Amino acid sequence: MIVRSPVLNVMMGAARKAGRGMVRDFGEVEKLQVSMKGTSDFVSSADLKAEKTIRAELSKARPAFGFLLEEGGEVGGDDKSHRWIVDPIDGTTNFLHGIPQFAVSIGLERDGELIAGVVYEPISDSLFHAEKGAGAYLNEWRLRVSARRKLEESVLATGIPHRGRPGQDVFIKELTAVMQETAGVRRFGSAALDLAYVAAGRCEGYWESGIKPWDIAAGIVLVKEAGGYVSDFDGKGDMLATGDIVAANDQLHSKLVSLLRKARG
Ligand code: IPD
């Protein structure tokens, strides 16, 4: 039996509750897709509604903790040590287009260190969760990063900078290097799930630039607790500050960092 801390149970409960509303709203989006009217506004309100639910659930259990919210920004708490880092819908573009790959992401930081993470994919009812020192799980199953040691056998996930995002030229250089060395690159559209997939050994690694703390906070804990490594492009732990992230299994992380650094020049 898995023994989970009370705070992790709170995070899981909040993610599930927001997820239930999201499944209903996603059903509406699929209908709206046909008419194409008002989909964006509807999704923005679904996002806000989910964030409100998560915030209320977390505050109810730990009223003094602060927040970093995708929609609501930084909200200071009386307890200066603890901060929730929340993305209510990671994969908003997928949600908007009726693509069922999106997730709730809730991370918990204590004194600047990430100590717990929950990534919940409501459509498949997949609840990824991890706590520092206690391992990573998908529902009831313990997770372990993949054991593949060769880049040529590996599948990597990434995020492609879209219109209006900086770093497109650099991304092309990274992609060119990675596609020549690996078995495949995937763009799923949710950084939180990309990291959960690395933790689950589905992908050997994931990299992205210009990513926000709420997209990756929970996933970082998952990968580390599943035995993987996470860093920025300098191999340091400043992912939340720099917005650069490279995550991979223990065998391939340093190879991937070197490959990307060389490609970036
Ligand atoms: C996005 C997703 C996507 C990543 C983008 C993020 P959002 O988050 O995580 O996979 O490539 O960089 O902005 O906007 O859907 O919360």
Structural features, described:
Helices cover 42% and strands 25% of the residues. It has helices spanning 6-35, 39-61, 92-96, 168-181, 191-199, 213-225, 239-242, 253-264, and strands at 65-69, 73-75, 79-90, 103-110, 113-121, 126-131, 135-138, 141-142, 155-158, 184-186, 205-208, 229-231, 245-248. The strands form 2 sheets. The protein has an 8-stranded mixed beta sheet with strand order 2-1-3-4-5-6-7-8, with helices on both faces. A 5-stranded mixed beta sheet has the order 10-9-11-13-12, with helices on both faces. The mean pLDDT is 95. Bound molecules: D-MYO-inositol-1-phosphate. D-MYO-inositol-1-phosphate (IPD) binds at residues 70, 87, 90-93, 159, 189-191, 208, 211, 215.
Q: What topology emerges from the helices and strands here?
A:
Blueprint: H1 6-35, H2 39-61, E1 65-69, E2 73-75, E3 79-90, H3 92-96, E4 103-110, E5 113-121, E6 126-131, E7 135-138, E8 141-142, E9 155-158, H4 168-181, E10 184-186, H5 191-199, E11 205-208, H6 213-225, E12 229-231, H7 239-242, E13 245-248, H8 253-264
Parallel strand pairs: 1-3, 9-10, 9-11
Antiparallel strand pairs: 1-2, 3-4, 4-5, 5-6, 6-7, 7-8, 11-13, 12-13
Helix pairs in contact: 1-2, 4-8, 5-6
